[in-house]
Model the fold of this input.
Amino acid sequence: MMRFIKYAFSLCLFTLVAISCAEDDNLDYADKITAPTNVTAAVSVTQDNTGMVTITPLAEGAVSYNVNFGDGSEEVTEITPGNGIEHVYEEGTYEATITAVSLNGLTTIVTQSVVVSFKAPENLVVTIENDAAISKQVNLSAVADFATMYEVYFGESTDETPMALNLEETISYQYAEAGTYTIKVVAKSAAIETTEYSEEFVVTAILQPLEGAPTPIRSEADVLSVFSDSYTDPSPIDYYPNWGANYNVHTN
Done:
């Protein structure tokens, strides 16, 4: 009897181990993984006339990246998230290719402009606008000849860290309070010299309601409705009593 118990226990233990191993080998979940999204890259050019560029790929759902620098040099593969890769360019404009790879091998490929110029940025034009739908949010874009990237200070604090703005992008910033702020944009190239722009900008709050009125909760017996979609209006009601006035009636 004791021998049978030991045998049964061993058989059960073996079965549990086998089931556990089978579950560990089940990779069906990988089939549900999609290709990486929001793929881009932060490009930083050293301002020392060397042409040293750091490209840091960014994406959602990526486990590694490949970077083709676009200048005929060898592609760098298996860059882990959060890490950048350095590369020395000759002066010029390049289209780097960023390939983001998901856990199951699906890829998303985007191109990123890389401009290497040893001239200081020129003809800097900055566009700043209050967002039409989001209260106290500012949208900013910039363009300049020879620029490789921009740093933006929104002026809400004296020790703020500037936000990086890539070429042909728009960034947004939401202030805590409406008011006038000094917004500064620094255009950078591969040259040591930079070009700056600053503006006293009035940040506005959206004063109109941002959402509809709540559904009425009063009992109908406590309400004398004149014009409502929630309560029954008394009948008859003459909305145009011929007083010689011109009325426009709106409903919600």
Notes: The first strand starts at residue 37 and ends at 45. The chain has one helix and 14 strands. Helices lie at 2-24.
